[in-house]
Amino acid sequence: MLRPALFSAAALGRSLLSSSSALGTCAALTAAVPRWFSAQPSPEEGDRTADAQYTFRARDLLIERSPVQQPPINLEDLKFGTVFTDHMFHVEHVVGQGWGRPAVKPFGLLQVHPAAQVLHYGLCCFEGMKAYAGVDGRTRLFRPELNMARLRRSARRLQLADFDPQELLACLKQLLMVDRSWLPEREGYSIYVRPFIFSSASALGVAKPARSTISILLSPVGPYFPTGLKPISLFVDELNRRAWPGGVGDCKVGGNYAPTIQPQVEAAQRYGTSQVLYTFRESHEHPDHGEFEECGAMNMFFYMEQRDGRRVLATPALTGTILPGVTRDSVLQLASGWGECEVQERPITIAEVRQASEEGRLLEIFGSGTACIVQPVGSLIRANGEVYRTRFSPDDDPAGSLSSRLQRALLDIQYGRVEHPWGVALD
Ligand SMILES: *Cc1c(COP(=O)(O)O)cnc(C)c1O
To answer: In the record, which positions carry N6-(pyridoxal phosphate)lysine (predicted)?
Structure first.
């Protein structure tokens, strides 16, 4: 298994950060570049592994099989995240008592106290990953240790109970094997895996959770955007913020997502867009100085030609307001390896993209995330009426666009068409 001691992107981000602070970005952010995906305890955490009780263990996993099996699903009208398999994972931690026994149980309702902190203060965090049926018949996860490490980081930010990410991954794999028959054997389809942790403590005080619950749900899914690899348009939201320096935009905590619904719904009504692209750092006097951040659930990439003809693939650096996506890092590594363009993590201003679009140098825009993998964007719509279009879309040259080649390369690893350390086979 891969051991993500330190994410390569963190080092990349660090070098680019120093240049971004030179450009006038808040210098204090430089110090905040963290161990994004480190599965190892940081010095301030101390070495918890010495404390044998700090985690549950996969070897203790209890498997209780469901007496009933649901009828087969219809892949044609599978709506994302609405169908669930026969089983789920469950384990609870109580401060003072430690972890209970981890279990794979029949899928069913959770019982929570009405005063549970999660219901009042949003004390919850989650992960999103996928299991794929490989062309060789084997079940694969994609860089799952990164999701486990990120979940641990998010949980720590909310002071939920700590655990060993490798033990959770081992439990997750067993859950997947129990519900293996649910995995659609079809390209574009997978089981979406949703681990989550929340405070089940029944106390109305805003305080460290006395009880934490970890669960994992499995949901068979098809392509995320019904339009497939067709480019979508995004509304550039220059009013609402998704994240800010010193906030928790770099953690997958529930509180980051609830406030994004209203902007998304309003943009859909007004502009017909399915997603919102957030910006930051603009001012009234200089609206075009705003920098692109990301969507509510996708990191953003801009593929541009510079005036000298050189091609650049740029994405916002991990300065604390960007969620460090597993797909984002994979795209960066793949594109760097291909060597056909310069790959940069840095600020991307509205002015830069507008100019590139006006001069026909905005080649492609795409989002990245586990759900959609790579999603091409054809146009950006601003509230002032301006629309920035990309020069070529996968429609023009389906095989040739950078986004579709990246998508293909990732799918090849995920479905096991190529052997790669990122594809982790379970069976
Ligand atoms: C989950 C998520 C992403 C994508 O991350 P992946 O690890 O690539 O799935 C991007 N942005 C936000 C805000 C997210 O929550």
So the answer is: 252
